[in-house]
Design brief:
11 strands; two-stranded antiparallel ribbon; TIM Barrel; 441 residues; 8-stranded parallel β-barrel
Length: 441
């Protein structure tokens, strides 16, 4: 008996345009059920990273791609690239802040990613990640318990939706005024250990969520081996016994989110310290059994730099802003809509304009925040316009997968990642998983 055809394009329109939350939940559930039947599983990359931490393989870097807009269309492009290159190991992610300003709650984001996989007839694990689930230093100092509750609430929502990979960013709490490195990192590793324990308590039975930590806030000074050691030793001693720890560690080596914007709106050339990245990745693997170091804020690097992530055995690289830029700058993106979005920014984000900042710098830094208010306008763009934008960005995705040596890794992923179907239970009972390596028609 053949598969019943489900119109994913229509479901995506409905998911975004319908306001009623219960209707959204029904659409998301329909997509998830269809995904399982097609052999598509929200999954944790933890087992794969554990194997890399044991030195079983290397020579490539996993791309983690933030989708701020046109999520369904761009996710389809990623799955096409993954199929062509037989990749397997790649991550679709969204940061805590992006969930807010792009108006993409976890349930909606997961549904769009899975719908894209269904549409492109992809099969296997889909790694969906909560990026930069970040602690606010200001709010933490004012009321630590309240800020932790905020983080735990969004983590719970994300895990319930199918985010089985969570990056905790408590590096905002590093206190460089302290003289001893361990004291500098103390709040950082302590909070990360607390949130790791929370994740372990709520994760579906049978799934070990991949958790990431961070020692250096992006855009600040470069990380050092001494900081990594102090963080990991403190983190491990703070973590409850028999609880699985982090699988990777984010570090700072010279980048900043979105790049440094020049007065004319162009991006300044970034000088990334690849030797620091190489050393920290090696230390993370050999001494602490992690997959390696993670590099944030890399999408605006020069094209010729990306192969170096493979050479330095970087575990994972996060890519976001360049794809956003390509959407805005595409000839297929309507000029009238872009003007409306920029006018909205000038009215609603004026307080974010810094002294001495040109209008070009202001627009570049804030234009990501227009995606949420104009989400419905963007999803209503003609299909041919969305296809043209996605086609251009697909070329960039393909280039990055090749530069990161994400070629023919599917068998390796299948070997180390067990596909498990999560069975949703009532709130009073824990979620369970059923081991299932094939979709059932």
């Amino acid at each position: 008996m053949g598969r019943r055809i489900v119109d994913m394009d229509r479901l995506m329109q409905d998911l975004v345009l319908i306001e009623d939350s219960e209707s959204k939940k029904k659409i998301a559930k329909k997509i998830l059920d269809t995904a399982y039947k097609r052999g598509i599983y929200p999954a944790s990359i933890n087992e794969f990273y554990d194997a890399r931490g044991r030195g079983e393989f290397g020579g490539f870097c996993v791309p983690a791609i933030n989708l701020r807009t046109l999520t369904y269309d761009l996710a389809k492009a990623i799955f096409r690239v993954a199929k062509r290159n037989n990749s397997g190991a790649f991550i679709l992610e969204i940061a805590k802040s992006e969930i807010g300003y792009t108006d993409q709650p976890p349930m909606e984001y997961v549904a769009m990613c899975l719908a894209a996989a269904i549409k492109e007839d992809y099969q296997g694990p889909v790694f969906i990640q909560g990026d930069h689930f970040q602690v606010s230093e200001k709010r933490y100092k004012e009321n630590p318990e309240k800020e932790m509750d905020v983080l735990k609430t969004i983590i719970q929502e994300a895990v319930d939706a199918g985010f089985y990979n969570i990056d905790i960013d408590s590096s905002t709490l590093v206190d460089l005024s302290k003289t001893k490195i361990k004291k500098q990192q103390e709040l950082n590793f302590g909070v990360c250990a607390d949130l790791t324990e929370f994740i372990r308590r709520i994760q579906p039975r049978g799934i070990e969520i991949s958790v990431g930590g961070e020692i250096g806030e992006v855009g600040k000074q470069n990380s050092t081996p001494e900081e990594l050691k102090a963080y990991m030793e403190g983190y491990r001693s703070s973590l409850r016994k028999n609880y699985k720890g982090i699988s990777k560690i984010s570090v700072q080596t010279g980048t900043s989110h979105g790049g440094v914007v020049l007065p004319d709106g162009q991006i300044a050339e970034v000088k990334l310290d690849f030797e620091t990245l190489r050393g920290l990745s090696k230390l993370a693997r050999e001494e602490f059994g992690l997959a390696g170091a993670v590099q944030h804020g890399a999408s605006t690097l020069p094209s010729e730099a990306f192969h170096k992530f493979t050479e330095t055995e970087t575990a994972e690289v996060h890519l976001a802003t360049e794809f956003q830029n390509m959407v805005y700058e595409s000839s297929a993106f309507p000029g009238e809509l872009k003007t409306k979005m920029y006018d909205w920014l000038k009215q609603n984000c004026a307080n974010e304009k810094k002294e001495g900042q040109t209008e070009e710098q202001f627009i570049y830094k804030t234009r990501k925040k227009a995606f949420g208010p104009f989400k419905k306008d963007i999803i209503r763009l003609p299909q041919d316009a969305r296809d043209e934008i996605a086609k251009t960005i697909e070329v960039k995705f393909d280039f990055l997968f090749k530069q990161l040596n994400m070629i023919d890794k599917k068998a390796l992923v299948d070997q180390h990642v067990t596909l498990k179907r999560v069975i949703k239970r009532k709130k009073s009972a824990p979620e369970e998983v059923v081991r299932d390596t094939e979709g059932d028609d």
